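User: Can you recover a sequence for this backbone? Please restate the input before giving your answer.

Assistant: Of course. Working from this structure:
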């Protein structure tokens, strides 16, 4: 079995599946395949120049991660997330980021972790000063990716990435509301300072409070418009 898994053909199949996975995920997250869209194999095969096998494998992986949903006898679709879906995702993020904050602050490398996160905050500040909201949002995501990657728990990191993908399918309005970007930067710096000082409970609380704050902004924005995301 070992020789079969490590054979050149098996490696090639894995590589092609990874290529298909990355391309399809990018198309979905970028909005090229909007919520409610049916995802069929043939157009993707033709676009990517791959066979159907790696494309099908990639679609099944994306379904397991919540980026696609499968409907019986109908195929794969980009999910249409409702307010309750987003609420559940934010609740998961609260628990996840709390643990990431705890682990980062208790790590022997907490000073190095804090330094890297602070550098992300400085990037955010520069984008904020020039009014580049898209650049700010990108570095905002990178801050959280870095927190998950550096906290020392690889499973937490993978779960965080999957939740972030699902959140991006929902609604990006909260990051564009007046004052939200400034508030997020302030909240990020509170997390960084707690990690820097090795204050485990304070880092956990700061990470949790940040996600609660973002969730409240999002829910308020949905309530104000009287609409549900992607509906």
């Amino acid at each position: 079995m070992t020789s079969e898994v490590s054979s050149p053909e098996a490696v090639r199949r894995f590589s092609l599946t990874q290529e298909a996975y990355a391309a399809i995920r990018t198309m979905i997250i970028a909005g090229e395949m909007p919520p409610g869209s049916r995802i069929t194999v043939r157009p993707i095969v033709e676009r990517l120049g791959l066979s159907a096998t790696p494309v099908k494998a990639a679609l099944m992986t994306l379904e397991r991660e919540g980026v696609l949903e499968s409907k019986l006898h109908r195929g794969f679709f980009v999910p249409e997330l409702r307010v309750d879906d987003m609420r559940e995702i934010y609740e998961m993020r609260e628990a996840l980021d709390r643990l990431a904050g705890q682990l980062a602050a208790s790590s022997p490398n907490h000073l190095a972790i804090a330094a890297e996160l602070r550098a992300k905050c400085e990037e955010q500040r520069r984008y904020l000063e020039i009014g580049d909201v898209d650049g700010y949002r990108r570095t905002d995501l990178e801050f959280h990716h870095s927190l998950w990657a550096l906290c020392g728990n690889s499973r937490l990191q993978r779960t965080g990435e999957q939740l972030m993908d699902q959140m991006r399918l929902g609604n990006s309005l909260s990051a564009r509301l007046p004052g939200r970007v400034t508030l997020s930067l302030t909240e990020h710096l509170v997390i960084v300072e707690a990690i820097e000082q090795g204050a485990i409970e304070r880092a956990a609380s700061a990470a949790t409070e940040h996600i609660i704050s973002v969730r409240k902004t999002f829910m308020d924005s949905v309530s104000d418009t009287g609409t549900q995301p992607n509906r």
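That completes the design. The longest helix spans residues 200-225.
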